[in-house]
Amino acid sequence: EVQLVETGGGLIQPGGSLRLSCAASGFTVTSNYMSWVRQAPGKGLEWVSVIYSGGSTYYADSVKGRFTISRDNSKNTLYLQLNGLRAEDTAVYYCARFQGVPGPIDYWGQGTLVTVSS
Amino acid sequence: SYVLTQPPSVSVAPGKTAKITCGGIHIGSKSVHWYQQKPGQAPVLVIYYDNDRPSGIPERFSGSNTGNMGTLTINRVEAGDEADYYCQVWDSSGDHVVFGGGTKLTVL
């Protein structure tokens, strides 16, 4: 059974850093297209970043240069390093698996809440 | 960057048909995927590649995509279909993902 479990969210001050983790089971992270999608409170879905099975990484303009997506094969885990956090980064962050390009997301995690506030 | 436009809300009576649109330039040349999200839950895929249904999704859900408009159609709407619906595509370069703004479906 495929499962994605995010951890690492919390309350962080503006300018701070946080690392989100997404532990996967039932499949191999490095063999798939993995992504982070966020949702600000009461708002819609916003794509954040993707890492291809081959290792290429891409980012939304809103986070480029501040966030870094990565993965650990030995732990079968996806990560998102969030630096230079802003109030507008406050959101639930979902880990997700894409069925390749141009496919859909077939599995989502339950999400982890990041709150950026002083 | 590519933009997908959805109506903020759609209302429909039980048993009727709901149509939720997703507008984008030449979207008919892309593959459109649709997600349903209920309050406090992660999104769920309901239609992929324009008009394919994942297992477990009722046949009442269907999709179409042509020209500048993709459409999610829900026949014989039930109270349990009340949710937010999002369309999604990949941009032409294949390295960015785009979501529509979402449509809140209200069952009257």
Structure summarized in a few sentences:
By secondary structure, chain A is mainly β. Chain A has strands spanning about 5, 10, 20-25, 35-40, 45-50, 55-60, 65-70, 75-80, 90-100, 105-110, 110-115.
Strand segment tally of chain B: 9
β content of chain B, as a range? 35-45%
Instruction: Please tell me the overall pLDDT of chain A.
Output: 97
User: What portion of the residues of chain A fall into strands of 2 or more residues?
Assistant: over 45%
Helix content of chain A: under 10%
Q: Measured on Cα atoms, how large is the radius of gyration of chain B?
A: 13 Å
Average pLDDT confidence of chain B is: 97
- Our count of helices of chain B gives 0
> Which overall shape of chain A is indicated by the principal axes computed on the Cα atoms?
globular
The most extensive contact between chains is: A-B, 24 and 27 residues
Low-confidence stretches of chain A: none
Biggest beta-sheet profile of chain B: 6 strands, mixed
Describe the protein's architecture and organization.
The complex is a heterodimer of chains A (118) and B (108). Chain A has strands spanning 3-7, 10-12, 18-25, 33-39, 45-51, 57-59, 67-72, 77-82, 91-98, 105-108, 112-116. Chain A is mostly beta strands. In chain A, strands 2, 4, 5, 6, 9, 10 and 11 form a seven-stranded mixed sheet that branches. In chain A, strands 1-3-8-7 form a four-stranded antiparallel sheet, with no helix packed on it. The model of chain A has no long low-confidence stretch (mean pLDDT 97). Chain B has strands at 9-12, 18-23, 33-37, 44-47, 61-66, 69-74, 83-90, 97-99, 103-107. Chain B is built from no helices and nine strands. In chain B, the strands form two sheets. In chain B, strands 1, 3, 4, 7, 8 and 9 form a six-stranded mixed sheet that branches. In chain B, strands 2-6-5 form a three-stranded antiparallel sheet, with no helix packed on it. The chains are: A mainly beta (118), B mainly beta (108). Chain A binds chain B through residues 35, 37, 44-47, 50, 56, 58, 60-61, 94, 98-99, 101-106, 108-111, and chain B through 1, 30-31, 33, 35, 37, 42-45, 48-49, 54, 84, 86, 88-90, 94-102.
